[in-house]
Design a protein that fits this description.
The complex is a heterodimer of chains A (463) and B (176). Chain A has 463 residues and is an all-alpha fold. Chain A has one domain. Chain A has 16 helices and no strands. Helices cover 44% and strands 12% of the residues of chain B. Chain B has helices at residues 15-27, 44-47, 55-81, 98-120, 155-164; strands spanning 6-12, 34-36, 141-146, 169-174. Chain B has five helices and four strands; from the N terminus they run E-H-E-H-H-H-E-H-E. Chain B has a four-stranded antiparallel sheet with strand order 2-3-1-4. Chain B has 176 residues and is of the alpha+beta class. Chain B is elongated, with a radius of gyration of 25 Å. Classes of the chains: A mainly alpha (463), B alpha+beta (176).
Chain lengths: 463, 176
């Protein structure tokens, strides 16, 4: 039995019963997808195909095809990498941290958010992989494998190597967590397929559900596994962006060499991740008619997290500026003066507007409960967060110590193409997920639906 | 009568009725084979008298394996097998080894625990489960009682007991 506060809004509206939950979520897997799904898939595949061409060209000819030069040796590749990894963080935050805090509103959004995490991490991983140039030798450079150089081992003092371990662990654990959650829901689809007489679907979903039955003993162990996975994922997700930030913070480049980076990056990651969750869920909810499960209340709560993390990010920007002056280090001072006033000032001020000013609009209740405003602002936040990484990386590099090396970065077709490739990959994967997998965690929603639907009924009687 | 073949199956619509029903059935000395639910029902493990799972211990041990494996690997590789001076640090300096140690601890704890969970519940992709009622993944709670293990009561008495415990339906189920 679930106890819900009478002060809070119900999490599932429309007086749904447990049976309705199975039906409303499973029918998207069972029915053929709407026309809008096919159109979206076609567009994603076009991006994917063009990006794949650019990717192959870079693999064949080398990363000289990118716009990098002697001074700016890291640009769009690492910007996109950090951006995608950051987006992934919201999924783990929703499924792990909110589970530990017993926030029941996570239940109807965690499945899609975790799927987003997994696809975002795959997109992120493509950039460092391609940047290695000779990708097929990368295993020897990135992993501690015995090799022909007298077994000269990988350098465990390097944050880049920590990153390899952090990202791969994060991907594996997120995938396992997500899949464990999917198992009981695949069984729902299997049993419905048996009743509908669809043998192929029943066999496929049975294999995917690992022959799940849902006995009380299994559920008891399952809940224990979910709780421990959440406990493990919580420090894991915080460690991942901390280690990503150390790629920069442990260097001596002015603008990167700051101790504020780990918390600042983690907050930024959650900020951009929630924005991407909102972008995706607002579309999913409209296309699959899930308004009773992903309610305005969910959207409002996510917007509140965006205000909190957006404000942390804003404070971090201002702290950085202050410290660059207060520290008295002229290189630091110049790096930040150059960000604000230099040739990339347009990028800096785009970042400031999108990340610091725009989320503050969510203080107005009308805006944070408006679907159109949320959708627009969620995209603006992600544009801002891309600029944040671009500003940190390129403005710090392009003014080298020797003024004769000063230069600008100009992306080529291949820089842009690979970014589009990850968009194609991400949306293709997400669309396939939305069609073939239950987009909402049915088992969890079923456990809260009764108390909620009773409350709705009571309120309706009351009015 | 062979065990694990002939069952009497009670269908429950609501988890609260189910919990009180389990208590009634067990109080009359009947052994319940298992209860199948579409979602985890809180308190059902106590009602059925199940012991707490030892999976957390398994997770801890797998995590410990990860920690020691990671530390041994790094200290041996950089400290003994091919020592190198990196940034003037000691060959085997602990602080830079912590991130990888942490990640491998989490990785092994998670994978080991999930593998243990899959094996202990006999979850594998090529297995068709024995289903007492297909609605148990949809919206019904299904209580299965093995007839061979409850010979003290007749089929009719068991059926009556389930009905009085709150079952909305009582069926028989035989497996080959």
């Amino acid at each position: 039995m679930q106890v819900t506060s009478s002060v809070r809004d119900p999490l599932v509206t429309g007086g749904k019963t447990v049976k309705d939950v199975s039906h409303d979520i499973s029918r998207h897997v069972e029915n053929s997808p709407p026309r809008s799904w096919w159109i979206a898939l076609a567009i994603s595949l076009v991006f994917f195909a063009y990006g794949f061409y650019c990717l192959c060209m870079v693999l064949w000819n080398g990363i000289g095809m990118w716009g990098l030069n002697k001074t700016v040796g890291w640009a769009w590749d690492i910007t996109n990498f950090v951006w995608w990894v950051g987006i992934g963080h919201a999924g783990t935050l929703i499924s792990a941290i909110l589970l530990l805090f017993r926030q029941k509103w996570r239940m109807s959004i965690n499945r899609a958010a975790e799927a987003m995490t997994i696809f975002a991490v795959i997109c992120a991983a493509t950039f460092p992989l391609i940047h290695m140039g000779r990708l097929w030798l990368g295993f020897y450079w990135a992993l501690p494998l015995p090799n022909a150089f007298g077994s000269l081992w990988a350098n465990f003092n390097s944050p880049l190597l920590w990153d390899v371990f952090a990202i791969s662990t994060y991907f594996t654990v997120s995938l396992v967590f997500w899949y464990i959650g999917l198992i009981p829901d695949f069984a729902v689809i299997r049993d419905r397929a048996v009743l509908q007489g669809n043998k192929i679907r029943a066999a496929v979903y049975n294999a995917m559900s690992f022959g799940w039955q849902g006995g009380a003993r299994t559920w008891m162990r399952y809940e224990s596994v979910a709780l421990i996975l959440a406990g493990l994922s919580t420090p894991l997700v915080l460690s991942v962006h901390t280690i990503v930030s150390m790629d920069f913070a442990t260097s001596v480049i002015p603008g990167w060499h700051t101790t504020i980076f780990p918390p600042y990056f983690v907050a930024g990651a959650i900020f951009s991740g929630f924005a991407m969750v909102l972008t995706l869920l607002l579309i999913t909810r409209a296309v699959f008619k899930l308004e009773d499960y992903i309610t305005i209340y969910h959207i409002e709560l996510m917007n509140i997290i965006i205000i909190v993390t957006g404000s942390i990010v804003g404070i971090a920007y201002i702290t950085e500026l202050f410290i660059s002056w207060y520290s008295g280090v002229e290189y630091e001072g110049y790096a930040f003066y150059n960000r604000v006033q230099g040739p990339y000032a347009w990028a800096y001020w785009s970042m400031m507007t999108c990340n610091v000013i725009s989320p503050q609009l969510f203080w107005v209740k009308k805006i944070r409960t408006s679907i159109a405003a949320t959708f627009v602002l969620s995209i603006i936040v992600n544009i801002g967060m891309w600029f944040e990484r671009f500003v940190i990386i390129v403005t710090s590099l392009h003014r080298d110590y020797i003024p004769s090396s000063w230069t600008m970065f100009h992306p080529t077709q291949y820089d842009i193409g690979e970014y589009l490739f990850t968009f194609g990959l991400f949306f293709t994967a997400f669309l396939l997920f939305a069609k073939f997998f239950p987009v909402i965690n049915m088992a969890e929603v079923k456990s809260i639906v009764r108390s909620d639907s009773e409350k709705v009924k009571k309120e309706e009687d009351h009015h | 009568m062979d065990a694990d073949k002939n069952f009497i199956v009670g269908i429950f619509d609501d988890e609260e009725i189910l919990l009180s029903g389990i208590k009634n059935v067990r109080d009359s000395g009947v052994k319940i084979h298992e209860v199948y639910s579409p979602f985890p029902v809180h308190g059902i493990d106590d009602a059925l008298g199940y012991k707490r799972t030892r999976l957390p211990i398994a997770a801890f041990l797998f995590g410990l394996t990860g920690t020691s494996l990671a530390l041994t690997m790094q200290i041996w590789m950089l400290g003994f097998d091919w020592p190198m001076i990196i940034g003037g640090k000691n060959f085997a300096s602990l602080p830079p080894f912590i991130p990888v140690t942490f990640e491998l601890t989490v990785l092994l704890a998670a994978l080991g625990m999930v593998a243990t969970f899959m094996i202990s519940n006999d979850l594998k992709p090529y297995r068709w489960p024995r289903q007492f009622d297909l609605r148990s993944t949809d919206d019904k709670h299904v209580m299965a009682i093995d007839l061979a293990k409850n010979t003290s009561m007749t089929k009719a008495a068991l059926s009556q007991l389930l009905k009085s415990a709150g079952a909305s339906e009582v069926n028989e189920k035989t497996f080959e």
